[in-house]
Amino acid sequence: MSTYRPVHAPHIPPVVGDGRTPRWTRRPPQSNWGDFGPDDQYGRLNYLDAEKVKQAALEIQTGQRFCLSLPLNLPGGNALNPRRHPPVIKPSTRPQGPGMNFALSQENPNYTDVISDDYAQIYLQYSTQWDALSHVGSHFDVNGDGIDELVYYNGFQAGIDILAPKDLPGMDGQSRAKALGVERLAEQAIQGRGVLVNLRKHFGDGHTLVSGSMLKRVLEQDGIEVEKGDIVALYTGFSDVLIGCNGQPRADMAETVCAVLDGRDPELQQWIIDSHIASLVADNYGIESVPGRPVDGSCAFLPLHELCLFKLGMPFGELWYLHELAQWLEQAGRYRFMLTAPALRLPGAVGSPVTPVATV
């Protein structure tokens, strides 16, 4: 069972359950709600315990490191997602002007220092990122009263635990995840054993929906064993193609380029459930097909996000850069590595830029 360690956001008290008032009486099918405790906010990251980290450390044989982050100004523009924009970097301000190449002698003639100080306006899930468990929820009747609620992992509720601007009057349009914020990922100091699956080697750069049976076949052909608590990294080549766009990606790339998981495939969903992996990361836009494969009737737009973030408490890493690591592992005849990938400890956010490091 996990221990919840609250981190206080300004003006917003943390969520601390009393262990007596249940947050839900019904949990969704396929979910693990409550398995790590009634107030758990770490989900499958609970598997990243000291033993798993020591197991990961055994993968370090050469000490070579690989940066698994894209430059955070990529993809470039907002063609891939019109709601997310590249970072804007500006200097801080001082009474005498912008704080870039600022001679402190302007404030005191005895000072010889030259100061540069800046800040960033950044969409937290624009580039290489973690999705926190507050990123995707669903409609579900958690109380068994026939009324669907807007809820997230382990029954945390919209409007109570995950707050939109309308829930925070007087806070100038701010939002806040009181529960399941990305700071939970930071608290876990994500470090564990990565397992790279080279889908590009098997499927090339054409757009391919990878089913559960196809994934299992790749694992068998490449002799890859996935164990409880592993972080599985999918190399598809998408980020390589993206880099080649020189900051001007096509709007349809997520639907036309490289391999993606078929999030609606029941066999794939069952493999993820049975594998007990701690997380899935990939170098593509959404890990799964965006949107999910068309079906009739009511459904999730992103079924794998719903399964993993909402039901299993399993964070996603998206738009990672895996090319150089994948090449090295292929040449070395390996597929495992030590992964270090802490999120920003930014209370209340639902996602975070990340600069993951693989050590081999």
From TrEMBL:
Q: Which GO terms describe its biological process?
A: L-tryptophan catabolic process to kynurenine
Name the source's superkingdom: Bacteria
Residues passing through the membrane, by range: none
Please name the GO terms that the record assigns under molecular function. Answer: arylformamidase activity
Q: InterPro entries per the record? A: KFase/CYL, KFase_sf
The record's region (Disordered) falls at 1-38
Descriptive protein name:
Cyclase family protein
> In which organism is this protein found?
Alicycliphilus denitrificans
